[in-house]
Amino acid sequence: MATGNGNRKSPSNAVKIILVIVAVVFLISWISKATTGMADSTWLNIRDGFLITFAAFLTLSIFSFLYNDNPFYKFAEHLYVGVSAAYWMCLGFWSIIVGNFVPHASKTLSTFFKVPFQEYSWFYYVAFAFGVILLMRLLPKAGWIARWPLAVIIGTTAGFNLSRYLHSDFMSQVGNTFQPLFVDWQGAGHFFSNLSLAADGQLVMSAGNWIVVVGVLCGLVYFFFSKEHKGMFGAASRLGIWILMITFGASFGYTVMGRISLLVGRITFLFDDWLSIL
Predict the structure, then answer these.
(1) Separation between Cα atoms, residue 69 and residue 64, nearest integer Å
(2) Domain range spanning residue 242?
(3) 55: helix, coil or strand?
């Protein structure tokens, strides 16, 4: 009978060669960056050389996914997720438990963590109890208990955010739609005598308000399905879909530009901080 270890596939020679090459390049880069460091201490040079080399290794490991899924990408991905989880856990402990709960729970703990004690409040004990009950999700037989505080948290958050989103995502946008079609109108003579293409000029600002009002109305017409889209109504509907597509395209382009800026930052790091050829 074959054992479990006998069914495992040993790494191929190609994988071993790649691992050796990566290790050698990593070591050479580490030594090179450590010997060319500008720090006063040898230990600082060794540390900085390792950090720069390791950062370059992780960057190239993430980029390697463009070719195919591989162990280097998986290592970088798991390391990023693990470090992020640990960081947010530590941040949550010091900012929420120590920063909010301890000053309202115990004078002794406040003295121990060196935070000023404020006053006792039962509300913080309830919140702390909810947090402990949420950890019951880790126990297979007691996981159902965590549903109660989770339901309270979701419901309370939805209630608090309802008024905020109603104001920011609905009322503010509706209010911003009601714009004067003719900004600072003082008659046709004043308009033509002070005609300017400046961004803060009367012509450009009025044209922008016209675009906003017409775009909103045409966009609403496109989603009005109680009347057949024909004639002027159909023309407004077609203009509305153009407005929507331009808006979605601009939003997507803005997102892509943000991602491109991250890519430029990583490439600059590789060619400047690591290879020093810029």
Answers:
(1) 8
(2) 183-274
(3) helix
Percent of the chain with pLDDT over 70: 94
- Is 149 part of a structural domain of the chain? no
Is 198 inside any structural domain?
A: yes
String of DSSP letters for 208-238: HHHHHHHHHHHHHHHT--SS---HHHHHHHH
Residues sharing a CB contact under 8 Å with residue 96, sequence separation 6 or more, in sequence order: none
Final residue before a domain boundary, out of 29, 48, 68: 68
Report the length, in residues, of the chain. Answer: 278
- Smallest CA-to-CA distance from 115 within 95, 88, 86, 132 is with 95
Domain count, the chain: 2
Cα–Cα nearest to 266, from 2, 56, 1 = 56
Decide if pLDDT at 6 tops 60. no
pLDDT number for residue 56:
95
CA distances from 266 to 147, 229, 276 (A): 42, 49, 14
Is 230 contained in some domain? yes
Number of helices (H), then strands (E), in the chain? 10, 0
Three-state SS for 247? helix
Q: Taking the model in full, what pTM does it have?
A: 0.73
How far does CA 189 lie from the centroid of its chain?
A: 51
- Residue 240, CA atoms < 13 Å, CB-side half-sphere: 17
- Is residue 164 in some structural domain? no
